[in-house]
Amino acid sequence: RQRGPQLAPSFSSDWRKGPQRAMQVQLSTLMLCVVALVLATFLSTSLGFLQPLRGESHDATVRSLRGHRVETLRVDLGQATTEPSISLAAVAGLLAVSAAALCACNARPLSKQLCRVVRLQQPMDKFSQNETSELLGMLKTRRPECRNLAQYDDTWHIVKENDSVPPSAKWSDCSVEPSMSEYANHADLGARAWMSHSVISFDYRVVEVPRGNLLDPSCDAMILGHLPRGSEERWLAEQRPQRRLIVIDETVYKLYGDRVRAYFESRKVQHEILVLPMVEENKSMELTLEVAKKMKEFNIDRRTEPVIAIGGGVCLDVVGLASALFRRRTPYIRVPTTALSYVDASVGAKNGCNFGGSKNRLGTYVPPCAALLDCAFFATQESRDVANGIAEMAKMAIMKSEELFCLLEEHGPRLATDKFMPSSDVDGAPARVLRLSIEKMLEELAPNLWEHSLERLVDFGHCVGQDLEMAALGTEHELMHGESVACDMAYMTVLAQQLSLITVEERDRTLKMLRRCQVPVWSPVMTYELFVEAVANRVKNSMGQNFPLAVGIGKARIVNDISDADLKQAFMRWQELCGPNAKAKHSEERVHAALLH
Questions:
Q1: Which pTM was predicted?
Q2: Are 100 and 126 in contact (CB under 8 A)?
Q3: Does residue 93 have a pLDDT over 80?
Q4: Looking at residue 39, what is its pLDDT?
Q5: What pLDDT does residue 36 have?
Q6: How far apart are CA 254 and CA 256, in angstroms?
Q7: Which residues are catalytic?
Q8: Checking DSSP bridges between strand 70-78 and strand 54-63, what pairing results, if any?
Q9: What element of type H or E holds 364?
Q10: 326-330 long-range contacts, Cβ below 8 Å, gap at least 24?
């Protein structure tokens, strides 16, 4: 109404062509029957043969196209005659009427198709008010495409072909399709099979809070931020006392524990705080079960009392896994306190723990109900930790955003040093980098939340980087997650140039940007033997190479079928460009950049 005349809705689906052909056949049959009826009537009238035929009346049941109402077509047959011409005309007319009635009976599937493929050739404002109301009512209560589950009388029913359904019934987007079992045999001919199709959706909020406000008692985000303002759920939550279980990393607790406790006390929220050593070495199922045990002791409500996880990526992953397991799904809230988890672990759906020497081998796809973001936590991180998070931001820059790439090129060194603190009131670069990183990440995650497709641009930096991270864990060359991702990205950038997907200038520009973000682009732990093993793991876990590679600045695509020769040649070139022999040259550049800053 605000944008002028609107065309009536059009419903279609992938299987639309089949019903259209069926509809055309039925319409053609109907037209032929009508022509035959007209011809028979004309012959009878012109020859004087139109006389009543005595006989019984017959009913043809016709399903209305506008609903489930059943109408009856009554055909009265007059007295039969012995004259051949009269009989012929009468039979022709009878056959035409019968064929028309038969076609009308077949109009049920036609009506079903017409309800699914509706195309109106005139704007909605050309219809009368009654016609518009009738049309909108039909669309509102129409049977969903390919669905056969309806709820009425508080019970779900599989709706079969001829079942009548009350107009007030609620149709599901899901379906259950019974069929004969392919394993039925002479001993049991009645064996059945059922195909259950369920549509599962998740809604979760990623909410920025102004710098330093999250732990301010005047801010209600930690209590109600997971519920949209104005929603019924939020209004109900405001009317009842609140309880919260908070799981917090022990390092974060030392820094912010008093403020966290004061926050919940000042808001009169009954709470308990579980403090755990959330580090990569402890990221195990045992740690996950400790969280689940505390949830049981707290007697947490499975719908209205989300667990709050405060910490880095390990804490968010472990609490997320425990929440996904406890009562099969208990809501939880993520509060990231590191630059890495701010743009990575907090905004996705995945959670997990390490198992069998492999990173995140156990886990689920259950997102939090909300991620609450406050970059003020970065202030208590070391610069190396902040740079570790910038590596994940660089991932999205190389893959998806030239604007983000340019921002990191220009501001990378100071973002790590100043920990995203703006240099002035008009300095919007730190906030813009964070927001672009989050938005570009969500663009990739939302349509593929359960990773049905393994062709993922967000895997850039994670093709061989995870194997590198686990191999370096506990050694003198140990790498943080973002640092191992950066080494992977540097190699893949060299590979992209090896395959002529980017130019030499774009390759060198990307490597320079990574160095300016204060992250390593090479590690001595990544030997060629480890590299070959990591590629094999990638192929196995991703059902193919599925390497995300740059094809320009801020542009990428998925590449497969890269030969072993190209992979090896790129590895050797990576060693030359980023290895120890190249370090001396670039260390001078880093010192020079720091002095300029």
A1: 0.72
A2: no
A3: no
A4: 66
A5: 63
A6: 6
A7: 350
A8: antiparallel
A9: strand 358-365
A10: 326/292, 326/295, 326/296, 326/300, 326/302, 327/302, 329/302, 329/366, 330/295, 330/300, 330/302, 330/306
